[in-house]
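Researcher: Sequence recovery benchmark, item below. Answer with residues only.
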């Protein structure tokens, strides 16, 4: 049953990606065709309105969606490949590695797209303005459909408990160590590419991975599992962002040296993730390191 459930959880993540991607494409098309407003530098009230994609805040929302849905897609496809490798890899060691990587990545593959591709659907509604909340456009239904994915096949909180309470310590910590080795390989390739952006992103990811390991050891060594697990959801979210930063670095490496809008878009989305998203984890890890008991200490009668 658990083998079936683990593959189903990857499927949930992939379904969340599909709904998030559909909303992204709908809002992208709307932004490219909806004229409204003028650039802030324009002082001519008689000038024709521009398409809303020309406004920086709309581009921000579209870029965030792209980073979420394409990051989630690459993550779930990587996990799908691991499912194949654990059954078909030629060497037993490779099959064992695939199984361990799947164990630690499955809570992320299920929960990260469920959270952040839903956020993409929220942004797709926002891009549409008031129309986004009506049935004139499909983005409101896409949001409603995607809202299920953080709930079924193990809720967000359950995946967090599984990750922090079981998976990071699986096989004596070998699963976490193996993931670190895979990420370290990507970092080394990025540094060797001779590109300043790739080198900067590699450095940021290396620091985030080191912070993840330190926090994991601090929580594990605190001797108070109840207090550590009280903030497991924050751990899941931070861990997930570090993993997806790795996935985006891999996509940037694949685009390195290649010209064209597709590859330029990949590089810019990677830049967005490292500049806007990965820094979120610093505050999350700081909270986790403090073993904060705010939620644990709350009492029923105080609500």
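Model:
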């Amino acid at each position: 049953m658990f083998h079936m459930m683990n593959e189903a959880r990857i499927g949930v993540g992939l379904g969340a990606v599909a709904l998030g991607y559909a909303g992204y494409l709908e809002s992208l098309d709307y932004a490219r065709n909806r004229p409204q407003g003028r650039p802030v530098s324009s002082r001519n009230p008689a000038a024709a309105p521009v398409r809303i994609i020309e406004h920086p805040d709309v581009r921000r929302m579209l870029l965030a969606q792209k980073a979420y849905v394409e990051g989630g897609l690459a993550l779930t496809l990587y996990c799908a490949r691991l499912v194949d490798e654990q059954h078909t890899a030629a060497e037993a060691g490779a099959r064992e590695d695939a199984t361990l990587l799947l164990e630690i990545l499955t809570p992320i593959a299920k929960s990260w797209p469920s959270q952040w591709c839903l956020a993409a659907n929220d942004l797709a509604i926002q891009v549409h303005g008031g129309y986004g909340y009506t049935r004139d456009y499909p983005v409101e239904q896409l949001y409603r459909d995607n809202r299920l994915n953080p709930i079924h096949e193990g809720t967000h909180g359950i995946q967090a408990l599984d990750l922090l309470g079981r998976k990071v310590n699986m096989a004596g910590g070998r699963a976490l160590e193996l993931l670190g080795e895979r990420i370290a390989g990507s970092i080394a390739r990025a540094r060797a590419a001779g590109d300043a952006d790739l080198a900067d992103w590699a450095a940021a990811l290396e620091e985030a991975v080191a912070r993840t390991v330190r926090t994991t050891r601090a929580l594990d060594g605190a001797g108070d599992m109840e207090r550590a697990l009280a903030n497991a959801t924050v751990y899941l979210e931070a861990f997930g962002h570090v993993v997806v930063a790795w996935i985006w670095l891999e996509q940037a490496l694949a685009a390195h040296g290649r010209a064209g809008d597709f590859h330029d878009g990949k590089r810019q989305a990677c830049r967005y993730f490292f500049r806007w998203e990965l820094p979120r984890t610093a505050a999350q890890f700081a909270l986790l390191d403090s073993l904060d008991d705010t939620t644990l200490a709350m009492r029923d009668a105080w609500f």
